[in-house]
Q: What sequence folds into this?
DNA sequence: CGCAAGATTGACCGCCCTCAATTGATGTGG
DNA sequence: CCACATCAATTGAGGGCGGTCAATCTTGCG
């Protein structure tokens, strides 16, 4: 695994973006809002160990939302074919990544299969966040985040709050609509805003 | 490749569903609306040679739209891990599939990498079909289909028409809204309905 | 023909978008 | 420490787009 780290050092564009990441052993940590990598830059694939990642691709007018990656998902797999990232990755929650490179051919194939199977599920999950009423979308997104951070089943799920801008991009709503809808959910007792930008979910995330 | 066909014969649930498919050499053809496979049934992965596939997964109230697969995309890759399909696949256009199984370990790994890289793009593409105004979504979907069937750049793109129900599910709109929006696009000259359920696009699908 | 599924059209209204202004949170330099 | 700039979030007013229900028309098929 060490070759992943050493190879990591000679990425040309990586320096500024990954500067925010703190390297511990072979893993890299990012804080909320940090840019993990940018479309077009050289790099390698990563596996999400903890946190939530937002993927964007270059649209006609600036970057547009292109997907989410949760714990266990692989991001930047396309670098194994094209060397460069096709998407920009931003940490929506405190994030921990580890290099995604396997030893033997058997292990590599198994890992690829797992990543491919997961990607189909990701697509359906993220699509579901763009269907139905505004309240439904945000409820589902919060449930999705609760599963992403691995909430304790015993107690009620408590998730960190995202920026409204990100919630809007993910759900396909407007920021103002998100603000109003979250207020409604709070009034109806479905969620309870806590200190330090945390939200408690008073419903089970299924 | 022959082992794919022979192994194909002993799929338990497959009989009824794949009955609509006509086997030529190692490929299988389906007509519009045919069910390729159903969630939960035993099977193998396939690669889309021609056509367009709709993927659904079981939601709380019936099946819900979970993604699209175009020419080159792999569907049912999860069977390599779990033996059974997790999604239901329906042909939205006349469809041709071929078994997705590679010979050597090198070829397998390369194919897996390609499929994984494509899957990230698929997610962003399908997500884009659920954002923006109704007219935008349908314009993008038609452009997506034009690329899916490999339109001739020389002439204006001409695509087969989907059922409004499918367009509605994909774009996250209602059937009535789809009907009205397509009429508007036709009135504005952006599309021209032709005979035999074909639509000519008077804009470039980019 | 007669049935069923799909598509169209109309009327109504509610949800969400849009624009705008205000407040709050955060960071920076004097 | 405060003034200031910047970004994020909230709130209001208004209108349009799309959802919803219903009826009608078209298409396909046995």
A:
């Amino acid at each position: 695994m060490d070759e992943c780290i050493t190879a990591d050092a000679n990425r040309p564009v990586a320096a500024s973006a990954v500067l925010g990441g703190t390297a511990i052993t072979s893993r890299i940590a990012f804080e909320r809002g940090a840019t993990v990598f940018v479309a077009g830059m050289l790099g390698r694939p990563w596996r999400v160990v903890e946190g939530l990642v937002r993927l964007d691709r270059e649209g006609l007018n600036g970057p547009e939302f292109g997907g989410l990656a949760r714990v266990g998902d692989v991001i930047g797999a396309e670098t194994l074919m094209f060397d460069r990232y096709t998407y920009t990755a931003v940490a929506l929650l405190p994030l921990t990544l580890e290099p995604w490179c396997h030893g033997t051919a058997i292990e590599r194939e198994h890992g690829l299969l797992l990543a491919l199977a997961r990607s189909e599920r990701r697509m359906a999950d993220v699509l579901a966040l763009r269907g139905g009423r505004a309240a439904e979308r945000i409820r589902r997104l919060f449930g999705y985040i609760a599963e992403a951070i691995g909430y304790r089943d015993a107690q009620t799920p408590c998730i960190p709050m995202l920026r409204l801008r990100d919630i809007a991009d993910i759900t396909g709503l407007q920021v103002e609509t998100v603000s109003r809808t979250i207020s409604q959910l709070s009034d109806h007792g479905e969620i309870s805003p806590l200190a330090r930008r945390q939200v408690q979910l008073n419903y089970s995330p299924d």
